[in-house]
Fold Enoyl-CoA hydratase.
Amino acid sequence: MSQYSSKWIKVSEPAPHVLHIELARGPVNAFCKEFWVAYGKVFDTIVEDGYDVRAAVLSSSFPKIFTAGLDLNDAAAMGNNGTETVTDNARTSLATRKMLLAFQNCIGAPERAPFPVIVALHGHVIGLGVDIIGACDIRYAAANTSFAIKEVDIGLAPDIGSLAFLPKITGNHSLLRELTYTARAFSAMEADKLGLVSKVVPGGRDEVVHEALELAKFIAAKSPIAVTGSKHLITHARDHSVAENLLYTSAWNSAALLTNDISTLLKANAKKKKPNFAPLSVQTALSKL
C-alpha cells in the first residue's frame, strides 16, 4: 500500500479489503497544514482510484497519543500563511475562511468515503483529534484514552467539526456543553457516557486496534452495496427529517435493489459458502473479469 502512504501517514492492508491508516507525525501527531492536506488526500485518492476497500481502521502509530491536535507553531495552519502583516481585515478574513473550509473538507474526508471508517482511539485525543473522530463511522476507545475539546483554552471555538458533529452524534448535550466550555480532559468511560464511543476496550493501542480490525474484517465480508448504501442513508437521516429520509431512501433503493449482491448472497447461503461480492467500483470490477 505504499502508493497511499506519505511522509506522516502509513497505509497497510492487514486483511483483504481492509485498510489500516496510521497517523505518524512524531512526536505527538500535531497537525500542520501539510499533514491535514495529506490526511484528506489519502481518503479521497483511495476513493478516486476505485481501490477495493470495504472497511478502514484509523489509528495512531504512537501508543501514548492519538493526536495533540493543531500544531500551534505552524503559521499556515493557523490561517495567516506565515505573515503577521494585515493589509486589509476583510481580505484577511476571506483568506482565513477559505483556509478553514479547506481544513474542514480534509478532516471530513472519512464521512465522504463510501466505506465505513472505524477509529481506534488510544492515549491522548486533544482538540483537533475530537474533530477528526466525529467524521468517522464507528469509534472504539482503549481504556487509557483521554479526550479534551481544547479549543476554548487557546481562545477560540472549535471550528473544524466538533460543534457540527458532536451535537448530532452524541446524546448528552449538557455534558457536551460542559466539556466544550471548560476544555477539561475526560476519560474513555465519560466518552462512553456522552455517546461519543461505542466500545471501551481494556488495554491500550494494541488491544483497541485489534478489536477495530476484527470489526472491519467482519464488515468487509458483507455486501459492499448494502454497507455503502447504509452509510449514505444513515448520514442523510442525521441531517434530514424522517419523511425526507424515507423519500430519499425509496429513490436510493429503487436502484440499489437491482444489485447482483442479493442473488450472490442467496446462492452462497444455499451452498453454505461465503459470498464473493464484486468491488463497488465498476472499473475495478471489470479489471478482475
